[in-house]
Fold:
Amino acid sequence: MTADSHYHLLIPTYRNDFNTCFYCGCIAAGHDYAPPRQYLEFYLATREPSEFLKIPACNECHDHLKACKAGTLDERHKFARAKLAKKYEKALTIYDMWTEDELAGLDFSLRHSIEAGLTLGAETTERLAYPGFAYEAAGQQHNVEYRAPQVFEVFGEQFDTFRAALDFASKAYRIPKNALKQAFADNEHHFELAIQAMHKQVAEKEFNQQLKQQCAAFAKQHKQAVIFVHKQVERYLSENDEMTITEALAHLYLTRIKPAETARR
Ligand SMILES: [Zn+2]
Structure:
């Protein structure tokens, strides 16, 4: 019995899917094996999960899957996707960050390289979203698992792609795309949380700047050490949520500075 006889050929149910890579939708050039042929004995002996399939695959997916020991179609599909995403990471980033209409002002070589990234990024995005196809193997029919289309929501507006949502959110909320993309990843893949977190950051930064400036001006005017003013104001603010920096400085003046001035006269 040859090794191949343990495998069932995965045959597309519909003519349109003939010669197509099951993992990414490109033209198939050969076959991937689930489990890999060098682990066949192991899978047969251990009965680890595997469908024992011979799967049409393109050269690139086939190459990537050489490093994959998994036995199931689903695991191998995930592995192939992750490898593709890693390989074309740069192009995917360009695709997320740029739109065609932003290219006009760029010099030739930069525009050329970003255009190439956009094309490759769009193609890779499509390959990564490829769901596989309906097939028959060992006399059994398998349908494509239905996956609800992904929707990205930004404060009530809905988008089909991350790219479109990022573009909208970046323009509507005046946040640079790369910072927003990072915040999206840091905040549960949620645009609203990301935008709120970034606005909070900006507000905190502005507050700290105000605090520094006003304390420095106050210290100079009343001939006090900046660090003393700063520490006092921070203490007042921590004791009273409602208090503003200006109010805290006024409080400092009335309770500490003015009595000392009066005493000196
Ligand atoms: Zn492929």
